[in-house]
Structures are given as C-alpha cells and as structure tokens.
Amino acid sequence: MDKQKKKTSHFPFRLNILFFTVFVLFSILILRLGFIQIVHGENYKKDLERKEDISVSNPVPRGKLYDRHFRVIVGNVPKSAITFTNQGFSQAEMLKTAERLAQLIEKNTDKITNRDKRDFWILKNPTLADAKITKQEKDLYTAKKLSDYDLYKLKLERITDVELNKFTKKDLEVLAIFKEFTSGYKFIPQIVKNDHVTAKEFAFVSENLQSLPGVDTTTDWERSYPFDTTLRSVLGKVTRSEEGLPAEQLQYFLARDYHRNDRVGKSQLESQYEEILRGYKAKIKNITDKTGNVIETQPVIDGRIGRDLVLTIDMDLQKAVDKIVEEELTKAKRWPGTWLTDRAYVVLMEPYSGDILAMSGKKLVRNGKTGRPEMQDDALGTFTTTYSVGSTVKGATILTGYKTGAIVPGTVFDDAGIKIKDTPIKKSYAYLGRLNEITALKKSSNVYMFHTAIQIGKGNYEYDKPLNLTNKMAFETVRNSFASFGLGTRTGIDLPNEQTGFKGQSRLPGYLLDLAIGQYDTYSTLQLAQYVSTIANGGYRMQPHIVKEIRRPAVGKEKLGPILKEVSPTVLNTIDAKEEWLHRVHIGFHKVMQEPGGTAYKFFKGAKYAPAGKTGTAEAFYDGPLRHRFGKVPPPVINLSLVGYAPSTNPEVAMAVLVPWAYQGKEDNKANLKIGRRVLDTYFKMKQGSSLTD
Fold this sequence. Notes:
Layout: H1 2-48, E1 51-58, E2 65-66, E3 72-84, H2 91-102, H3 114-124, H4 126-130, H5 135-142, H6 148-158, H7 161-164, H8 169-183, E4 190-193, H9 199-207, E5 215-224, H10 232-235, H11 250-254, H12 268-272, H13 274-277, E6 282-288, E7 294-301, E8 308-311, H14 315-332, E9 343-349, E10 356-366, E11 373-377, H15 381-384, H16 394-404, E12 413-414, E13 434-435, H17 437-443, H18 446-456, H19 474-485, H20 509-516, H21 525-536, E14 540-542, E15 547-551, E16 563-566, E17 571-574, H22 579-594, H23 601-604, E18 612-621, E19 636-646, E20 653-663, H24 671-688
Helix pairs in contact: 2-8, 14-24, 16-18, 16-22, 17-22, 18-20
C-alpha cells in the first residue's frame, strides 16, 4: 500500500517538470521571434519587397548571308559603342552624368532640334524659367485654371533666341548626350555613340565608369556588304540603332520579346528571315529594391549570334549578269525611239530544283542632286513589277489547247488575219502560211494562237462577223491553265511582296485572243522563269527559292557552322500534260533558237549549249515614271521578253529576260535577245571554269 502511494506521488511531479520545460522552450522561441521582428524585421521586409522580374536583353550580331559557294554576301563589322542604361535615375542625375561624359567624348549635335534646346534651357535654368511666369498666371494655376502643361508651354514660348544662343558647343554636346539618355527605356541599354568612337574615347570612358552611373562600353555591330550594291534591293535592310522597331510592326515585335530600340530586318530577305537571323540575346536579371534601385545583376541566358543563311545565288554569275544588263540597257538608250527605256530584268533558275542562280534588275534613274542618269539595282523588280510580255507565253497557249481538246498534235491553221466585226484586223507580223503548232511556235504566229483561243471558247469564227463564245468560262480556263505554269499567280518565292500581275476585266471575245498571245494580262520576270522551267523539266512547277541552307553560326576558326536545315526542291503542281504534247513544244522551242527562220535564230545560232526558248514582243502603253508628261493618254510602247533553257535536252538552267518600254515605233533594238545570248554564254563559260559547281 505504501509503495503504491509513493509511485503515485512521483507522477504529477514529472508531469510538472515536462510542462515547465515546454513553457521555457516556447518562451525562448517567442523571445527570439520578437528579437528578429524588432531588430531585423525592416531588413527582412526589404528583402521580401525586392522585384526579380526585370530581364534585360543585350543585343547580339545578326546571322550572316553566304552565296552558294560560301562567300559572305552580308556580314557584320564590329564597332566600339558607348551605352547608357537608365536604372531609375532622376533627370538631375542623368544631366550630371551627361556633363561628365561630354568631357570624355565628342558627340554629334546635328539632330538637336529647337524644341530640344528650349527644354534643355528650362532644365538648366529652373529659376529663370519660373520668372517667365507672371503673378496673374500663377494665380490662375493656383485656381486650377491653368495646368502644369500650360505653364510649361508658356515658359517654352518665352525663351528668347538670345538665351538659346548662349549655349556653347560643349553645352550642345551635353544636350545631345542627355537626349540619348532620356530617349531609352528603363533597364534597356541605349546607344549613346557607336559611330567613329575613337580608341582614346573608348579607353577614357572605360577608365571612368565608376563616376558614370548607367554608362558602359561595349561592342556593337553594323551590316557589311562585301559585294557592294549587288542584289541589295533583294537582300533588304536592317533598322538603324536610333530607329529601333518599325512603328507599323511595333506590337508584333514586342509580343515576341523584342525591345523598342532593337534593330530588325525591315525589308525583303532581312525581314523574311528575321526570326532566324536575329539570334538569341544575352539576358540578365536586375534585382531591385522597393525604390527601384538595382541591388544585384544575375545572368540568365548567354547570348548567341543569329543563324546563317546560305543562298542559292552565285555571286560571280550575279555580278556578270548585272554587268551585261547594265551594258545592254545603256546601249539600248542610244537607239531611235528608245528614250522611255529605263529598265531590264533577268532571272536564272535551275529548272529541276527551283534554285535561283541570279536575279538581276537594273534601272536608270536621274540623280536628284547632279541631274545625271545613274544605274540603280532593281533586282526586286523581277517579282514585284509585272508587264505585258507578248509571245513568250505561247508555249502555255499550245499546251492549254491540247489539254482542252481545242487542238491535237499536228493541227493546222492558216495564218490569214482574223477580222471580228467592228474591230481592227488581228494578225501576225507577216503572213506565215499554213502552220502546225510546232512551226507556229518557231515563227511566233499570232493567228495560230487566236484560232486555238477561239476553239477553247467554242466560238464559230467567220470573217468580219461577230464572234460569240459559247464557253462562258473560257477566260477562267486559259488563266487557270496559265497559272499551273506560274503565270499570273504567286510563284511561292521565299521573299515578301511578290505581285501576281494585272488581269484584264473585259470579257469581250477579242480580249481572249489577246490573252492567248500575252497581250492582255501582265506577268513578272520570275513568273516567266517558273513557266519556262515547268516546260523544260517535263511539267513540274517548282517553287523558286533564294535560301538554300540554314546553318548554325561558325565557332572558333570554322568557316561555316553545321547545317540545321536544307531547303529541298518543292513541286507546287504538275501541268497534267502528256509527254507527247511537251515533246512537241520542246521541238518548237528548239526551232526558235536553232533552226533558220526561228525568231531567235540569228542571235543563238552556233551556240554549243543547244538552247531552246521563245521570244516575245508585246504592244503596250507606257506607265513608267515619266507618264505625267503625257496627260491622260500614255504613248504606245513595245515590251520585249525572252524565255529559254539549255541544253534543250536535260536542261540545267532556265532563263527569263524582260525589257519593258524597250522602244516606240518600228525600230527594234533586240535588247532581249542580246541580253539573253550574252547571259547564257556567260553561264556556260563560267561553268567550264567550275564557278557554278557546288
């Protein structure tokens, strides 16, 4: 009994000891928490209020452009640069930094406006600026009848020219620097100077960065063009550092993680492949406190320059073709009746792959300063301008006639002129006798094509009687067939702003006949190249492309990085033509250039590479830059064209030549044939020298 009582009396004592221990521990914890809250609470609160969502992207060079032989067409030239990053500085702080920086560098002041000077005068002279406001105006401001903007506007207006003229050259340099500081965005580096930064300036600024908050020295870049102006209109442009994102595409680029002062491709190839050429920027994260001050900078992503593009263009061939076009265009201007001639175009294309080997356009323009004509690159015009091309489309007309059953191989028509009631007679350049389709191509009979078009339209022709077409879809039939060759439709070239051409609106039967000889709708030089390639390769419309490969940037001493993507030949459609039909058109095209009586024989006879093709002469009306001189009635002109391929069997190159407004009247300068012969001669001569071998 006593033992049991003794054991019972020990239990409450131990429990009390336990409770007391827990009490002491909780007390210590509470005291510790209190100490932390009272002594270190403010510091921890500031830590929690840090903002870690501000990423800054540093620009990197764009990818390079190479020709098919891996020669640089567009590269990057490094240049020293001085930048400023606004980290939340006040105007007074930025002004002070600008004054220090102006002592170390020279800054161009050409872009300073009168308004800039007035704003700067107020910033530098706040007391004098306030004195320009009368007591009455201050009372109105107090009464809220004038706003801050109203008062500031009054100050601006009352600054005198005498006061502005007191600015020294150094003052204006400070203003120019300050203007760059304030034109940027918070935490985004802004270029202060990147043109002609001397080694001395770069060194001085680098040595004094501690006293120049926000200022840094870095390496910038600009595009370089080793081949000068060759193909420049197609290569495109990049915005300047002070230009930044194009205003019309601002939201598009901002949504893709660009900054407002980033440089981007703004036209043609640079724009089309922007996402590839731009590369990846280096990113850092600025950690700030609640007042916006940068506490720490952390790297997030290392930068990498853009991907490189290897083009299908052979720059040696491109330059040679450019020279030919320039020389023949200059010569053509010397002929009578050619004063409106001002441009010419050539496209060379591989018929089986769609590779564009050369894309040449030249235009004579008058220099606004000297008043003298000068040659300008207009390669862009090969696919952004369209013209009536004439008889070069007759191969498509014959094949359309086959497909619709309007003619069969060997069909013969008499070349006597076509006379529709109340319209002028429509005929060939001479009476050519009775012709089948092969001879019609060789001699370029218009009348044969007229009869083919009438049969497509299911018309019943009688001399000097109305012509009615029972097939109301005849225009659509011809145009859809032409489009299967690439005529009157987009070729699919990997460049922006391609034009399809003008389609005549009238449905009168006579215009269907004009359509069949290439004198109603308009086509581009590139469309002609795709069309003749389709005939040359056996009926496959290949998508033309100017980019051959996409590669990673080279590393170290490598000349080229590894291939990321190779552009494969793409068949857009087939023309659904029998082999026999194509064979007969091939024979006709061969006779054009290689048999006496062919319309191009005099210029291509003796060519060892056995070319085949079709000439074109179109009656048109001038619609060029001098049209304003002629009022509402532009003068009639002749457009010259030529399509071809070589060799005529197993062709390896297709060519299109177009010379708009080549002449007026009857004087034919044959510029299309002269250009075409020289271009094909040059291609095969260079091939023998291995210039075109991949």
